[in-house]
Amino acid sequence: MQRATRGGRAQPWLDCAVTQGQPAAVDPDVVIAVDSVTVSRSGTDLLRDVTWRVELDERWVVLGPNGAGKTTLLSLASGRLFPTRGTVQVLGERLGRVDVHELRTRIGLSSAALADRFPGDETVHDVVLTASWSVVGRARESYDRMDVARAHALLDQFGMVGLAQRRYGTLSEGERKRTQIARALMTDPELLLLDEPAAGLDLGGREDLVRRLADLAADPDAPALVLVTHHVEEIPPGFTHALLLRDGTVVAQGLLTETVTAENLSKTFDTPLRVSYVDGRFAARAG
Hints:
By secondary structure, the chain is an alpha/beta fold. It contains nine helices and 14 strands.
C-alpha cells in the first residue's frame, strides 16, 4: 500500500511529456490541459471537441445543465476516465502515459460517488485521516503526529473539529460535505476537484459552505480549484474563471465575470435568463 502524501509542489510540474519519442516541455503553470477531446460511450458523445486550460492559482467553476458533460470532464481531470479522441495532461502528465494511481495521489477529489464509499460507523476524524493512505475505512495502517495534526487542522478549517469523534453516518448533509472537502485536502494536493459540493444543502448549509470555499479560494497556498455546479448562486467569491457546457460542447469559457453573462447562461440552459452580480455573488432568474 502506497502512502498518498507528497513532498512538495514544484517537482511534479517539471516533468516532461513525450510525443513520438520527442520530449515536449510542459508549461509549469498549466495544471490541466485538455486538447480537442471527445469522450464517446455507446455511440453517444459525452464530450465533443473540448479544449480547456487550467493554470496554477486559477479557480474555475464548470457550469451547465444535467447531461452537459460536467462530471465527465471532472473524471478526465482526476485521471478516472480516458478520452476517446484528443489528449489530456494533468499536473504535467499525459493520460495514457502515466501511472494514474500515482497521479491520483496528487489530486484532491470530493464527489458523491466517493462519499458513498465511506463507512457510516467511521469517525469523522478517521474519514479525513485515512486519505493519507488513500484508503476508505481505517484498518491497521499507521499515522504519525503530523497526519493527526493535519486532519485536526482541516476539520477545524471546515467547522468540523467539534464533531471529530462523531460517526460519519450520523452527520447532516452539510456536515458530510465539509468532511469530504477536508478529506480531499488531506494529502496537500496540487489540484482540488469539487463535484457539486453544495448539492442537497439547505440555504444555511449552502451559504456556510460557499463562505468556507471563498476563504479557500483566497488562500495563496491553496491548490488550483475546479468546482462543478448547476447554479450560479453556488459560485464562491474569489473564483476567477468559468467554463459553460451544454450537450458535451463548450458554450463559453474565460474570466468569470466576462463568461457568466445573461446571454451565455441563456444559451447554456436553453432558457431566457437574467443575471445579477452583487458583492462578488451571482444570481439568475428567468427573464
